[in-house]
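Batch manifest line 1038
LIGAND: magnesium ion
JOB: complex structure
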Amino acid sequence: MTTPGDALITLEGLGKTFLTDEVETRALVDVSLTVAVGEFVAISGPSGCGKTTLLSILGLLDTPSAGRYRLAGEDVTGLTATERARVRNRQIGFIFQAFNLIGELTVEENVALPLTYRGMTVTEQRERVADALARVGMSHRLKHYPAQLSGGQQQRVAVARAVAGKPAILLADEPTGNLDSANGEQVMALLAALHGAGSTICMVTHDPRYARLADREVHLFDGALAAPAGAA
Amino acid sequence: MTRPIRAATLVHAARMLRRRPAFAGFALALVTVGAAAATAILAVAHATLLRPLPYRQPEALHDLAVDLRQSARVAQRSAISARELVAWRGASRTLAAVGGYAPTTVAVTGNGSAEAVAGMLVSAGLFELVGASPQLGREFRRDEEVATSAVAVISERLWATRFARDPAVLQRTLMVDNEARQIVGVMPARFSLFFQPADVWLPMVLSADRLRGPVRTFSAVGRLRPGVSAAQLATDLAQLEATLVQEEPDVYRGATPVATPLREALLGNQRATISILLVAVLLLVGIGAMNVAGLSAADAVAQQTTTMMRLALGAHPVHVMSLRVAEGAVLALLALPPALAGAALLLAAARALNPGLIVGPEALADLPVIAYAVGAVAVMGVLTMLPAALADARLEIASLAGAASKATGTRRERASRDVILGAQVAITVVLLVAATLLTRNLGALLDRWPGFEQRGVVVAPLAPSRAARETVQDRARRVERILAEVQQVPGVAHAATIQTRFVLNENMQSAIDIDGRPAEAGSQLTANIRHVSPAIFAVLKTRLVAGRTFDETDREGARVVAVVNESFARQLLAGAPPLGARIRRANRADAPWMDIVGVVEDVADAGAGVALGPTLYVSYLQQNTPTARVTVVARTPGDPAALADPVRRAIWRADPDQAIESTLPLEALVARSVAEPRLRAMLVGLFGASGLLLVLTGVHATTQHAVVRRTREIGIRSALGATPRSLLVDTLVGSVRPAIIGLGAGVVLAVPTVAGLQAYVREPVRPSDAPVVLLVVIVFVVLALIAAWLPARHAIRISPTIAMRA
Ligand SMILES: Nc1ncnc2c1ncn2[C@@H]1O[C@H](COP(=O)(O)OP(=O)(O)OP(=O)(O)O)[C@@H](O)[C@H]1O
Ligand SMILES: [Mg+2]
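JOB STATUS: finished
ARTIFACT:
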């Protein structure tokens, strides 16, 4: 496994170009970035500068049009869809701005969902789910449905889902964007605690207060890194 | 808004539909097909179950018959005797009038070629009894119910074809069975008594000499006096029967008169079949409606942006919903003409498959039936758009509540969709299993060797000759002359005559005695009887099992001989050697004893699959009667249809006045005998196939709908690490699982259905039919998987990046 200080993520000359109706959008241009194990990186920049695109590529939701991406020492640039799904499932925990809990599933089932894709035994799944929900303080809502929870509670369940599989890195795209400030602070406190316990985190945020919680801030501007990359 | 739907709304709705040709086309097709099927079956149900019989005060009319049961177990419904008719007509206190009738076939000659037509013997006053009157002339009087009356009432068709609608037709005569009859009346076009079309009505003979003896050939109808109950009628008839028992105990002891409301008697046996079909069609329309509903819900999702836009621009929700209802109305309006045409087509097809059906396309020309059709399209049209209207209403509420959650759908919503799909599948499985078994039954009926080779045979039933002065020898010679001529026809290999017309369930029976085996007291042996010419078994290729068949020497004056079939030997001779056994017909005291000289295999000459049991063959050249029918059968190595005309002309060369009922290939007659099972199998098969199609489109639509509706969820799952394969499998399982549960329910339901079908099939359903059910299930699952897979493929193309979008 990886030890603190090792490079978990290495991007070299990464580019992403979207082609829509003959309009070419260069969302990312020549991005080179290293994220070390145990590091908490905040990504910020103006709207449309490519933050979400970058996070999508980091999370293997999307593939870059140029450059190379190494995750935990392995080149993940040319993986097939199925292989990328496996890597996402084991290495990456997502926290979305829109929570993205599945309405038909209970809190418990939502948290267990990524685990079910690993073929984990039900007992082990239960343990991990209970553990994760305890960490976000949602153990008392096991059988509730997302619609029965407040926004802040939903996001805490989403955090539990992200950490239940013990991923190598947590990716959060404006995790407080849909929350009021009290709930937002609660979720940020959770992320800080996770970081304190050793989690590697990449978080997109507009809010300078939250960005300051990170070890390092990365600025994107028009798809390119504004500050020298890798200067930790 | 006082009038939510105005003409302008309809025009707007039509324009909206035109912008979605795929949806509109599919919805229109479903509404049309569903409404056509519903209208057709409702028209049949209306004509047979609801509409009053076309007679004056039809509810007072009762069918009169007698029950001749020997033991208490089985009712033996029988026609009545002339004496019963006269007694009831003369002395009933509960019946205002009683009339008798008996269908017959008569030969009409003169004013055109010889023609065998349907006729009916009727008692005086029968037309008046039902409230019908001739368009010209009168009906029969009581004094005409004698053998010498020589009068006839003819149909409008005969008046037109034979008399060119001569207004003075009442001064003319018609040759009926070689006897000139004065025409006394012409009935109106399309008049028929009790659904039995006829061209000639003759007075029945009720003279004193006909009132003795056991002959029971008449059907009877009575009109109840006002205020009389069914119980009073039964008592009255029973008392009248008691007086007959005193006069002729041998004939009337044990006979119980039975009165049945006429509708029940005429149409009661159709009610079960019609009810089954009605239920099947309603289920089918239900399946269709569920599908259209799913389709329209999907359409509502597709139209979401448009609808939201409209709401945002200030349209009232009622406005938006009324547009949907208007779209439904437009669909209904467009579907009405093709639905009526489709219903007519269905009814015409049913009649073509089974000419015996009393309801045809003309049943649609009835205001209530048109109203049913309008109702059917309206209901289907509204049902089509209702879910969309409701979805639009929910959209409004959702947008008011704000974008609270990106989660999609609730369990309850999904469960109700699953239940609908499962129910559709269950119904369809039942229909398919029933159809498959009915079809297999049909195949089994036709595959079973009937005791004759049906290919290459032409069959020409001759109208009975009523020339009373002919002797046995005269008739034998006439048949020999006819056969000699037919034998001369190029292409004819052999020709012979038989007594049957190969018509379903048409049979002749005779009471018989077996020498040295006296019948038990109170019981009488009976066998089917066939008067045949010697070559018959060779022509039909019926296998000889023992002894010999008839030959030219078996004629009047020679030793009297008989041939029996295997069932006769087995059941009536009970193992005793058949050859040499002596039997005779028991209905006449002077009937001669016959030596059995041969045994042939059983011949199913009264419809495919109809097991006739013991049958006795006698030589027409040796014994015959005026009423023993003669049907010419000729075998050819070529096409029997090509022989029809030459055979007809050959018969006329032998006897120019001989009326020929028809000349048809034997294969056609056999096929006709299975018209009813074929119609049933085809209808149920059609319903099953439509059900299957609907279910498959349903599976396809729900899967597509699920993929579209759950796009975001699928994206989230993919982001969380679901592999493309597991997404595909999940989607497939999600939409096929309810179908499989429905399949299980269908198989369970199929068991009582199959048991119920036993009553309708001539070939019993056996456990060996289980693979059929299995096959239906496998085919179903495979097709359902394909139907689900087509749209489910799109699930794996959904990009996980959508999870990142707020
Ligand atoms: N699937 C896509 N197809 C075409 N263009 C896209 C797509 N996704 C993103 N883009 C474009 O790429 C650029 C970067 O988008 P991205 O969503 O990464 O911005 P962002 O920094 O996350 O903005 P925001 O702060 O508003 O969320 C934008 O110009 C956007 O329009
Ligand atoms: Mg973004």
